[in-house]
Amino acid sequence: MAPATPELISPRSPRVSAARRLAKRNFRGKERLFLAEGPQAVREAAGHRGGGTATLVELFATPDAAERYADIVGAARDAGARVHLATEQVIADISTTVTPQGLVGICRFLDTDFEAILKTRPRLVAVLAHVRDPGNAGTVLRCADAAGAEAVVLTDASVDLYNPKAVRASVGSLFHLPVAVGVPVERAVAGLKDAGVRILAADGAGDHDLDEELDKGTMGVPTAWVFGNEAWGLPEETRELADAVVRVPIHGRAESLNLATAAAVCLYASARAQRAPGGCRSVTHG
């Protein structure tokens, strides 16, 4: 059976124009909506609900993509999203990628209030302080999700969570764990400390070595890792807020690790220590 005929054929249509504007931060903030592109992101969006409300609002799909990903389109409809069949030209006009995959969703903002995160007494948190690159922010969020973190916090000096590149780089993890945005770093650190969380700042010039911390058995407690700017790391005033400034040891000849790689190493070190006998997860959750 031939694919259905697209209903949206003009990039100038009001519906398409409204979707395209969400590539810009000021429009995203005004509408509290953002774009999720590709089958993985749309699948996760379709299954996500925030505060009892479906996150996915609309879905644009080419006829071929709607046929190929019929399960995702069905999930979108089940979630109450409006589904529009569109030409490849329309999808390309809405999309922010060079090679669109035929599915673009419009989603409601889903960030979580920071105080609500603190009430859960989180055991592993990633704090992005001064992180400006959206691809790095999304990748760190993905790493935090994979390591089993309970939350991610983006400070007020960091990139927009809903930047299309950040959403793509998270590969669906944006829909998996609570994320607080726009939190001043001082408030983030103070709130987490009050919740019983140890604050570790990741910095290549740190006084503490990650391997040594693991050997000493200090990593099994509830922990928040603070990660800094890609180019210049963490400012001194932020490092001073931490309980310890920890470096990832370089055993070879590499000059350094990039932000996302260092974040993955740090988060997994904590995750392993917390799951070891005596770690906070085994103590509190059997």
Report on this model:
The protein has a 7-stranded parallel beta sheet with strand order 9-8-7-12-10-13-11. Strands 1-6-4-5 form a 4-stranded mixed beta sheet. Helix 3 runs parallel beside helix 5, helix 8 (134-147) packs parallel to helix 9 (164-170) and helix 8 (134-147) runs parallel beside helix 13 (259-275). It is an alpha/beta fold and 286 residues long. It is elongated. The model has no long low-confidence stretch (mean pLDDT 92). Strand 7 (124-128), helix 8 and strand 8 (151-155) form a beta-alpha-beta unit. The protein has 14 helices and 13 strands.
SSE topology sketch:
Blueprint: H1 14-20, H2 25-31, E1 33-37, H3 39-46, E2 49-50, E3 53-54, E4 56-61, H4 63-68, H5 70-78, E5 82-85, H6 88-94, E6 103-108, H7 114-119, E7 124-128, H8 134-147, E8 151-155, H9 164-170, E9 179-183, H10 185-194, E10 198-202, E11 208-209, H11 210-216, E12 223-227, H12 236-239, E13 244-247, H13 259-275, H14 280-285
Parallel strand pairs: 4-5, 7-8, 7-12, 8-9, 10-12, 10-13, 11-13
Antiparallel strand pairs: 1-6, 2-3, 4-6
Helix pairs in contact: 3-5, 8-9, 8-13
Describe, in short, the structure shown.
With about 290 residues, the chain is an alpha/beta fold.
Number of helices: 14
User: What is the total tally of β strands?
Assistant: 13
The largest sheet has its strands arranged as 9-8-7-12-10-13-11
Q: Percent helix among the residues?
A: 40-55%
From the spread of the alpha carbons, the general shape counts as elongated
Query: What percent of residues are in strands?
Result: 15-25%
How far from one another are the termini?
54 Å
- Specify Rg, calculated over alpha carbons: 21 Å
Largest sheet: 7 strands, parallel
Mean pLDDT: 92
Uncertain parts:
none
Helix and strand content put the structural class at: alpha/beta
Order of helices and strands: HHEHEEEHHEHEHEHEHEHEEHEHEHH
Oligomeric state of shown chains: single chain
